[in-house]
Amino acid sequence: MEQFRPTSHASPSPAPPSLPANVVAPRWRQSLLGKTVLFLLSAVLVAYTIGAGIGFLVVERISRDQWWSQAAIDTQISTAAIRGIYTFVTVQNDPSGRVTRIVSDTPLGDDNSILQTGFSPVDVLALASAQTLNNVWLLHYQPDKTPGYTLVSADDGASAPDQRQISPKLLNLQEPYTGFARINGHQYFVNAIPIATRLGKQTGALISSIGTREQLYGTRNTLIHNALLALLVVLLAATLAIIWLLRRLFGPVPTLIRSLIGMAQGDIQTVTPHQGRMDEIGQLADAIETLRKAAVEREQLLSIRETAIRLEHMAHHDALTGLPNRAFLDRVLKRMVEALPSGARFNVMLFDLDRFKPVNDSHGHAAGDALLVAVGDRLNLLLGPEDLAARLGGDEFVVVQAVLRDAKREASRLAEHILEALQRPFLVNGVALTIGTSIGIALAPDDGDNAHDLLKHADAALYSAKNAGRGRYVFHEPRAPGDVWIGACAH
């Protein structure tokens, strides 16, 4: 398109012909320019009003959906945290997987549960709040007392505020409730699920919040306020742009807009047109090109970073199962050994798969690889948040278990779960494959204060387990001359 050039003023323009006396020049609103400007401004105003109205409705709907979704997610996280502490608790889910009820015959947070778990209800709720970044309450129904309930939270501890300070809908909860509710004088958006015994007696409720009404609606009101300001800015900009566009040739703008839209949609390879013009259009084109080059550089940096992260992961994880490899295991063991003087304890479990070679021989290496992947998946489901499962190679695995209280008891419990999980058939390519395992266990620091000794002793215990008949776990026991390895009972 030709570049706009101002009309030369070297010679005066001829005077326009005079209008007849009976012909009146049209007013600005009646002129073609005025009508065009008013029409375009009206179209912009109507379109923006309709779009803004629809946008406000969509924002309101999306906000509600996000609140519901976030409340459900926070409840899932809270119940998972509670189940991690109160192992006697079970939950009921609806077909979509949403938790609808907590089932426990033992009151949550009573003296017995504190003695059993070592956690007070405030500590448990603090753990849940730390994960959801919002407050979580535990409501206990006490109909024989006044006001008839006790409310526990990580922020306020246990309290029994005036009954008017909590919504009545929460005081006899039969079904899950999601929406606004009053708690301690504030309106929160909550997801509350009932707590009941297996016989159906309602004993309380777990309440998860995503924020107060003021916080949630404050964000929406800010959006509306900004949208109104944006309307004024758009109308003003549209007025100036329309008048200027109708007076001057401004052809490159749509092309530059398309360049920006293409960049927003990921096209950063197309060079920006209209560069080098000696006016604002040229400056805009140069600025867009600078932005495009910056986007290209950023894309390259992101690609390099993603490659580095991928290489780092590949260097420390098994390519087949995705489990940490020997290098990662050595690094973890070194860190945990360094923590032994401060009182930390951990267990090392070494095991390989019984009857794995026949699977490879009978069904092929592809089936063997699929079986190893399935074993890794089952292991991950059994581990605690501080535990680690690694693949050393072949069918040999290591589990490093962080000890909370009793090293031997916790190791026995996990070993039994591993034996049980790996003895269940695996469905690989439509074929049910049955294997098993034997486990050798070394306790740190009892059986060694370095990674080499712990792995060596765990390997010796594994050898004893296999000699004792497989399908069992054996603890390492120091032996004197003439002694034999003594293992734990078979699973």
Tally of DSSP β-strands:
15
Task: State the end-to-end distance.
Answer: 84 Å
Mean pLDDT: 80
Tally of contiguous helical segments: 11
Specify Rg, calculated over alpha carbons: 35 Å
Helicity range of the residues?
40-55%
Q: What sequence of helices (H) and strands (E) makes up the elements?
A: HEEHHEEEEEEHHHHEHHEEHEEEHE
In words, what does this structure look like?
This protein is α+β, with helices and mostly antiparallel strands. It has helices spanning 32-85, 111-117, 121-132, 213-247, 252-264, 280-316, 326-338, 356-363, 365-382, 407-423, 451-467; strands at residues 90-93, 99-103, 136-141, 149-153, 157-159, 177-183, 186-196, 202-212, 346-354, 388-393, 396-402, 426-428, 431-433, 436-444, 473-475. Strands 1, 2, 3, 4, 5, 6, 7 and 8 form an 8-stranded mixed sheet that branches. A hairpin with a 3-residue loop joins β4 and β5.
Protein topology:
Blueprint: H1 32-85, E1 90-93, E2 99-103, H2 111-117, H3 121-132, E3 136-141, E4 149-153, E5 157-159, E6 177-183, E7 186-196, E8 202-212, H4 213-247, H5 252-264, H6 280-316, H7 326-338, E9 346-354, H8 356-363, H9 365-382, E10 388-393, E11 396-402, H10 407-423, E12 426-428, E13 431-433, E14 436-444, H11 451-467, E15 473-475
Parallel strand pairs: 2-7, 14-15
Antiparallel strand pairs: 1-2, 3-4, 3-8, 4-5, 6-7, 7-8, 9-11, 9-14, 10-11, 12-13
Helix pairs in contact: 1-3, 1-4, 5-6, 8-9, 9-10
